[in-house]
Write a structure and sequence with these properties.
Length: about 325
């Protein structure tokens, strides 16, 4: 029996699909919690594909955004424009304000202070519950100018802006893919006179305006005025526009920035058993076959009454359990 078992396991190992893009054991994730009903939460995955159904924050959650919708956006919808308020796959009917909108990718928009475009409802007082943590920024600078991006100059430096977890995960990916100098995020205060970046410096929004790429080489004079016509913007300096370094940073953000997953598949017991059987099925069947034939012969004659009763009781218990689980499906995930 043993050689067969080894063979089956080896076959499974060879034929299982190539899993993630990278072999990361503890995948970077952000939990978006919106309810006190249980510990289940929707998850935002680095490299995740997004999509799936949206969910509504329930009335009894005492969450500040009760009734609003979360999730549903796909990764390929992640790119916005140079205008704040861009990058919403849905809930963008009123381009002039972000107040009252839902959260297609799981996070809230950036807060620029002074209720700019109705965003005071996402201000720093709510950073304590912002998915991914408070707003931070980090400099994105090459370890060595001109290497490996031949035309990147000494002053070609970018800033990313977003929640703490997203910025930290992105920094790890930049260090890996774009030869960027590691830098820990710092608190972003849009009202501070010392803030390294301002609204005018942003040249690309992502993920429903919850994440931004900026450069002090860029000054978008339309940033505060072109609210309703988000197509207008100052042109990017050629150095930024045609920079292969900038393109590396941009494509890493587009591919890796955490976005909200589909709701989890509620895995039934039968599925788990199915998987176990799929792996060990053949040896189990052979062994069980011999044993059963013998045992059946012995037992069925002796214990037919008790067996029926035991089976009935097990059935009853299974039915009761299924009913209980169906009852608990209320907000199984928020
Ligand atoms: C939640 O509240 C809104 C308005 O406050 C109401 O229209 C809706 O019916 C409520 N939903 C439930 C399930 O109570
Ligand atoms: C944030 O907005 C609330 C109103 O939504 C306001 O009471 C509070 O003072 C604001 N805090 C800051 C830091 O702007
Ligand atoms: C952008 O340009 C305007 C006017 O040209 C200037 O007042 C403003 O300070 C600049 N902003 C930044 C962030 O450089
Ligand atoms: C925005 O577009 C409207 C027409 O749709 C136009 O009247 C208005 O002047 C534009 N605003 C800016 C700031 O360009
Ligand atoms: C930088 O190099 C890339 C190719 O490596 C090229 O497409 C781009 O035009 C260059 N940019 C500048 C400003 O020379």
């Amino acid at each position: 029996m043993r050689p067969l078992l080894v063979l089956v396991i080896a076959f499974q190992a060879l034929t299982s699909p190539a899993s993630a893009k990278l072999d990361v054991k503890n995948k970077p994730q952000i939990r978006a919690t919106t309810s006190f009903a249980n510990f289940d939460a929707r998850i935002m995955d680095h490299w995740g594909g997004g999509g799936g159904a949206t969910w509504t924050i329930s009335n009894d959650s005492v969450h500040p955004f009760v009734g609003r919708q979360f999730g549903g956006a796909k990764r390929k919808q992640i790119a916005g424009t140079r205008a704040f308020g861009s990058g919403y796959p849905w809930d963008s009917d009123n381009a002039a304000t972000l107040s009252g909108r839902g959260f297609p990718f799981g996070t809230w928009p950036i807060w620029w202070g002074n209720d700019f475009m109705g965003t005071d409802e996402y201000n720093s007082t709510k950073d304590t519950i912002r998915p991914g943590g408070q707003l931070v920024t980090a400099p994105v600078q090459l370890i060595k100018a001109g290497s490996p991006f031949t035309n990147a100059t000494e002053d070609e430096m970018y800033y990313i802006l977003g929640d703490t977890q997203s910025v930290t995960f992105m920094m790890i990916s930049f260090v890996t893919w774009c030869h960027v100098k590691p830098a820990w995020p710092t608190k972003f205060d849009p009202l501070s006179p010392n803030t390294p970046i301002r609204l005018e410096n942003v040249f690309q929004y992502y993920r429903a305006s919850s994440f931004a790429l900026a450069s002090t080489l860029y000054n978008n004079t339309f940033a505060r005025t072109s609210i309703a016509n988000s197509t207008e913007s100052s042109p990017l300096p050629a150095q930024v526009e045609y920079s292969d370094y900038r393109q590396c940073v941009d494509s890493v953000i587009s591919n890796a920035l955490p976005v909200m997953n589909k709701p989890p598949l509620v895995q039934k017991k039968s599925v788990t058993y199915g998987i176990i059987f799929g792996i060990l099925g053949i040896p189990m069947l052979l062994t069980a076959g011999y044993l059963l034939a013998f045992a059946w012969y012995c037992l069925s004659t002796m214990f037919s009454g008790p067996i029926a009763r035991v089976r009935e009781s097990a059935d009853r218990k299974a039915r009761a359990k299924a009913e209980r689980e169906a009852g608990l499906a209320y907000e199984a995930f928020p």
